[in-house]
Automatic annotation (TrEMBL), chains A, B, C, D:
InterPro entries in the cross-refs: GlcG_carb_metab_protein, PduO/GlcC-like, PduO/GlcC-like_sf
Coiled-coil blocks: none
Pfam families in the cross-refs: HbpS-like
Source species: Algoriphagus halophytocola
Signal sequence interval, chain numbering: none
Protein name (record): Heme-binding protein
UniProt superkingdom: Bacteria
Xref: PANTHER family: PROTEIN GLCG, SLR1406 PROTEIN
Amino acid sequence: MSQAQTKPYLTLEEAIKIADAAQAKSTAEGWNMVIAILDDGGHLVSLRKMDGVQTGSIDVALGKAKTSVFFKRPSKAFEDMMKADGGGRISTLPNVVAIEGGLPIFKDGVLVGAIGISGATSAQDGLVAAAALEAMD
Amino acid sequence: MSQAQTKPYLTLEEAIKIADAAQAKSTAEGWNMVIAILDDGGHLVSLRKMDGVQTGSIDVALGKAKTSVFFKRPSKAFEDMMKADGGGRISTLPNVVAIEGGLPIFKDGVLVGAIGISGATSAQDGLVAAAALEAMD
Amino acid sequence: MSQAQTKPYLTLEEAIKIADAAQAKSTAEGWNMVIAILDDGGHLVSLRKMDGVQTGSIDVALGKAKTSVFFKRPSKAFEDMMKADGGGRISTLPNVVAIEGGLPIFKDGVLVGAIGISGATSAQDGLVAAAALEAMD
Amino acid sequence: MSQAQTKPYLTLEEAIKIADAAQAKSTAEGWNMVIAILDDGGHLVSLRKMDGVQTGSIDVALGKAKTSVFFKRPSKAFEDMMKADGGGRISTLPNVVAIEGGLPIFKDGVLVGAIGISGATSAQDGLVAAAALEAMD
């Protein structure tokens, strides 16, 4: 009897739990955010835009999440690289938004997707992303 | 004293109520769907992709919703036009997905956004979209 | 003494005269339209979107005008070809919106741009485009 | 009796008044400009390209205006951020043209659109944009 190789994936139920946590943290802090959650192919599983958030934050949140799923790391990692070397080099990387607020999502050590947050300062975006992923624990 | 010209808009709370209704209808029927809700500028307010839906349905749902918000009518209207006249003409219209499953959302007779559903047959997609909008009543 | 080869071009003043005529005709008929005027390279010289016109008409008007300047003929010419042969062939042509409402603009027999109208039925769009170009006489 | 949530919007009449003011200022200074005005969804309401302006300025003006409507701030805000920190980070933001000449348009404190100017130096572009918005007072 053959045994297929399998990988875990992010369910909608999990994505909604993460998005709920992100929205609760944002509301508690008085921030309005776009909350984007992608699967391991970089495709949307869940998105919410809270009232009054600037339209530009939709693509920024999507871009941060895509950065994290395409490169398996926080989007802040590229922001830090830029600060170290002036940044030009990194700005030519396809599919990178080099701003804090994107985090990869792992299950059992395997990448299953990413979250991207935009709407406040990038440090605040990062706080909400981190708080949201605690819902996965 | 000046008087601004105003128009209504779609809140996240309303969008989530609509998405919940779409998801409930889909679950009741045993269908898995992508549920996309856009504002009156064609920008995302809410998206959910139920487990196992084909990746292609994300852009189909977005395209149907964009069709409805850009042209203030059900995406099925273009499907019907195509059947009536052979269809070539309609296939050259920019931003049109001429398949049932997109519906405009009105408040007090003013367009505030649209819903797009994809994942099952287009007739089933249309049923879910219609059921979802009953949550606005 | 050398003599450069020259070609006439569409001035903003002329484009505004044409747009004014299109807007006057639309208002007289009770139609709201997008009025797009392109130069001979297919680039915008003038655009107006009357209040309440569906957002989708912007790209449709631009597409009809681009069709007329790229192919030096009314966009209706492609609509007629489609009716003659079923249309599939024409729908694969790049940069063609095969719907009435786009007309090329000539000065001294030389193509200088095009107008595209969208917002009502395609026949009404075509009437407004034709009325607008009379302002060039 | 239901009460819709409402927001103000930009009329074509207002957009033309703003564009007229931008064109008058440009003419007075001897500059030729592209003048682009978008609604709150980032879609065109009015565009004018004065005679002789480089073709590239069309997309620059559109990009500056989109930056301002998508991020609810002058496009110069991003130019300043770039100068402050080396800029790489900002260059990865989607939908941002980080050059002076784009300004958001507000009515009663609510974003209703934006203006983008391009054709001269960015400082001159910014002067024309600012002069144009005085027509809203």
